Amino acid sequence: MHDAVVTSDGDRIRWVELAGSEPARVYLHGLGASSPVYFAAAAAHPLLAGRRSLLVDLLGFGVSDRPPGFDYGLESHADAVAAALRAAGVAGAEVIGHSMGGSVAVVLAARHPELVSRLLVVDGNLDAQAPARGAAGSRGIAAYSEDEFVHGGGWEATATSVGAAWWATMRLSGRKALHRSSVRLCRGTAPSVRELLRGLSVPRTFIWPASDGELRGAGELAASGVRLAPLADCGHNVMLDAPDAFAQSAAQALG
């Protein structure tokens, strides 16, 4: 286990690291998840193994600290990851981000371009979205006020609605961290994550489940140089549902 102080209050991000060649690969998980759980098999897959790999838990999630004063916005998450990568001596990394982690990865590349040489976004959130009570994931969580979620039954309602697999890691999240991350993920960034992704100059790939249909704004993304790679026979957790297809597409994207 590795760690680094990433805030002025001494809060630490922690990660599992696999030894290998440079440039490093950095894996960022989605909302309520943990990178070692979601990405260990991918990082060790024969098509991806052999590279120095940092499986990072964002602040508020997994084994990282849960600072109550942190705002958990996408920019703040990205800056905290940047501090951890600098402490680890990482530069020019190939960054793989799933779902919310994909959004964080895009913001990281925009705010700290020296840290990112390639970007693989796995069904990431590109646009702001409206909270909606009863909706899955961030939209449903963000529909509660923070007090309702933390103290008024929102946490418990979420536990019964997300399913056993997601709850296995979500239950490790800080309650305020989970709520604030959801609210700010729904709020998005300005410019939007989509606009930031289009404006980056590094090689970029976006993977999503083919069963979701055509990706919104696919033409504009492709025109800006983003490689689009729909994958069959998987849901949102692409790397868990279709590990071989994911590894093949990731290897192609990362070179």
TrEMBL record:
Alphabetical keyword list: Hydrolase
Molecular function via GO: hydrolase activity
SUPFAM superfamilies: alpha/beta-Hydrolases
Superkingdom as given in the UniProt entry: Bacteria
Domain AB hydrolase-1 as annotated: residue spans: 26-124
Keyword flag Hydrolase: yes
Protein name: Alpha/beta fold hydrolase
